[in-house]
Amino acid sequence: MAKCTLVLFAAALMTAATVSRAELSVTQGSAVAKADMRGTTAQEWQYTLRPGDTFLAVARDLLAAGVSSGDLRRYNDLSSHALVSEGDTLRIPLKWLKRQPEPARASSVTGTVQYISGISGQKRPLQPDTLIRVGDEVLSGTGSATIELADGSEIRISPNSRLIFNRLTQYGKSGMVDTRLRLNHGEVHTRVKPVIEGGARFEIETPSAVAAVRGTAFSLQTSPLGTDLQVTDGVVDFGAPGKTRRIPAGYSASVSTNNTNGLIIRRLPPAPNLNPLASPLTRLPAELSWAESPAPEYRLDIFETDSGRWVESRKLRNNRFDIGLLDNGDYEIHLAALDPRGIAGMPAIMPLEVALQARSATLVSPENGATANDDMPEFQWNLNGSNEVARVEIAEDIEFSDIITTSEWAPETRALPSKPLGPGQYYWRVVTEAGGNSVATTEARQLIVNGSLPPVRIISVNYVDSQVRVFWEKVDTASEYRLQLSEEPGFNNIIKEATLPDTTAALRLIPGRRYFVRLKALSDGPLTSRWGPGRELYLE
């Protein structure tokens, strides 16, 4: 039985090797073998001209220094007068292609991840869209990050990992890259574009092993004890330096640091059988379940489809999980059974769309047109949707063109404003949000906050001939002012009263008599007000 297993495994390896040699196509080109002008066999890349391409522009963009457009014409058996156009193919030896540094880019970052510059050694937080160049390092700490290479390949860095970028090279504008990385410790998950035998490379080195990729999806973990590999698509050449074996999809391989046991190869646990979920999901939480298996544990990962951001990663002991707290968008769910050593098997992958719809809340209190004697009134409502958060918004106009205060976003059904409300008339409403981008708004209600306008203080008095001009402080919430003039300080006998729009007034007084003046602020709303202190006037 053991001999049969070995024979089957060898056949799988031979099949995978055949597939990897056949997968030579890359963006706008492929590699084939041809005898070059010196009679030796060379790996070559075929470039198909696109709209607007010219022979000289292609030669300038793709050929390395020392290789001329004439060399390219002779290699393709083209005369100096021959014309090429869209759809024609040029053959280019791989060694003739221009090589240039091409930075990678952080497409998403979650949690605490540090970026260490290879030039200055400076450490700073890694941000989305940060460019990563040769010699730079990413130290993930408690967070995770997704790095995108120039050819679109993805590297997902797990927490507590350190990845060094030793080489990031692109072959002109061919779309091919040569990438060499070192994983000092931790874990990475990769999805690598197919590479060309003898041309582009993708290689990850660890302290105990090396993984050379031919176009695949795989995971790699390294620690002081050794390095583990799991291949879920394509093939990987893996093992101690100089002693690699070709590992196909569906298998794992391990190398210990002391290398006493050599390369250990095992079949990965099969992918779990996921039960279907409604898509799009319009309500959360939703239960994800799968058929039971002998696996002691499972690993669940959720990724954003577009950015590759790691949204969720956890180990589970049972065969169900409640999905919640996802914003609207497209995701990939990856579920894998863990073997007794904790190594993840082949993943079951399920696309998932979340499309939550916010529903307008039902307002409870205060009633429309109600009066509040508190400058921090409480607002209440009922939510009508699922997985929603809400806040109250307060404005001085019914169009809410200038919102003066709100409450915090929360899944609660009551809230206080974030700052006190001065006396006056207001409008309030409740806004609900679901999935991060679906919003619903209630109708507006009127609320009157009682209070008193501050007393008006007279600033100065000017006497000019028989006229007295009085100046007083402006009250921001006042629309106009009431002035009273009396001949006694108790203002029991008012001899003159007027309503004024400004903060000054001219009074004509009889010389030799004593007068007293006072003011109070008036408002368009139902605000109460009180008189300011009186001021004695005397014209000689």
Automatic annotation (TrEMBL):
Organism whose genome encodes this protein: Marinobacter nitratireducens
UniProt signal peptide: 1-22
Key words of the record: Signal
Keyword Thylakoid: no
Pfam families registered for this protein in UniProt: FecR, LysM
Residues covered by the LysM domain: 45-92
Protein origin, superkingdom: Bacteria
Protein name in the entry: Putative peptidoglycan binding protein
